[in-house]
Every structure is written in C-alpha cells, then in structure tokens.
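note to self: dont lose this again. the chain is below, predicted strucutre after it. 110 aa total, dont forget to put it in the shared folder this time
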Amino acid sequence: MLGAITGAVVIVTVLILLAARAVFGEKGREAVITVVPLRGEKRRLMRLIKALYWENRFKESRYRRLIILVSCGNRENDIAASELADELEDVEFMQRFAAEKYISEDTSGD
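---
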C-alpha cells in the first residue's frame, strides 16, 4: 500500500514539474509536452500513444509537442512503449528516475 502511494506521489510530482518546464520552455521557446504514465492495460496504452502521435503529426511543426512515456514499473508496458518510441518521431520513453533527472536539469540556457 505504501509503495503504491509513494509511486502515485512521484508520478504526480513528475507531471507537475514537466508542466512547469513546458510553461517556461526550452532555450527561450515555448515547449509543449504531453506526459503519458504507463499504467493500465497495454493494448489501451498503445492505442492512446498512437492516437496522440497521429494527432501530433498533422499539426504544423511549431505546434507539435513532445510525447514522453514515463515508466510506472510495469515491465510489459515498458517494453512495448520503448519499442513504440523507437519507431515514432517526437515520442520518448523514460524510466521514472530519468524523467526526474530531465526535469531537474538547468534550462536557463547560455
């Protein structure tokens, strides 16, 4: 029970920090990021990711967003999402700890 609560708190924190990073952008540009926590049934997740990808593909390049798939500890979902991210443009797979490191990087730029 405690592990589930801790996992939920970490995921919520990651989502909040990614949203804050999206508001401030990268290198002076506005960045739009969609975060997909990899929880639930694998088939539904893959359909969701593909739908987000195709919606993104038909937008103008300046309105496209980065889709980040964040691991939630389900090995089957992680493997499928990682393979899908390798195939699709603007889709990245991250382990939870890598996402936390990505968020904490200095984005103030030079």
